[in-house]
Amino acid sequence: IASGQGFTIGASQFVLQQGSGNVGIGTTSPQTTLEIVKNLTAATTIPLYLANLISATSTAVAMEFRTQDILNNTGTSTARITSILQQNFNTAKGDLAFSTLNSGAMTEALRLTAAGSVGIGTTTPGSILAIQNVGNFVASATSTLFNGFQAPTLNITGLSATSTFANGIFASAF
Question: 106 with 86: CB under 8 angstroms?
Answer without folding.
Answer: no
